[in-house]
Amino acid sequence: GYTQNDIDNWANIVARSLRAAGGSPKDKIHVAYGYGLFTGGLGAHYGAERLGATVIPMSGGQTEKQAQLIRDFQPDMIMVTPSYCLNLIEELERQLGGDASGCSLRVGVFGAEPWTQAMRKEIERRLGITALDIYGLSEVMGPGVAMECLETTDGPTIWEDHFYPEIVNPHDGTPLADGEHGELLFTTLTKEALPVIRYRTRDLTRLLPGTA
Fold this sequence. Notes:
Distance between the termini: 31 Å
Subunit structure: Monomer.
Helix content: 25-40%
Pathway: Aromatic compound metabolism; phenylacetate degradation
GO molecular function: nucleotide binding; phenylacetate-CoA ligase activity
CATH class: Alpha Beta
GO biological process, one term: phenylacetate catabolic process
CATH architecture: 3-Layer(aba) Sandwich
Organism: Escherichia coli
Order of helices and strands: HEHEHEHEHEEEEEE
CATH topology: Rossmann fold
């Protein structure tokens, strides 16, 4: 659940994330995350609007139409799951008769599922973009809890003015020091509806000093 203030904060956080990805009010952003009850589409949409960008609210599916709209509207950025982006690239290559790396897109913001460095490199090569990672989860807020920055591309930066992270031993909950691998916990600092305290994400990672 969200209060209106939560939604406003969410829009600001995603707008900040898009700015970290190199976005600006001059950009057109193609949103291919699902809308509806899934938080990805609406979170991306609110953030792109708050940034001042033009939003292409495509949602998920309709791959042939997605590719056609990218060709027609010439967006600068795309927000989509990495696995679906690979399907979309195949359709773009089909419509273009081969190489899709010359399309208008320059940055992709990918999240909502795990992906590998091999997937990242393939997407970047075939689409001619910089692929960045956005992190979030519906229980905490939605997309935008953390964002990889265009200048560093070395992993997401957590927005700690809204979300306090901890790393613990996944077996007994013992706190771990920065740099040690463990389970990621979050405490929401600004959420009004359904705030969480030390929420166990079941995601295994480590916290490193910020570089962005």
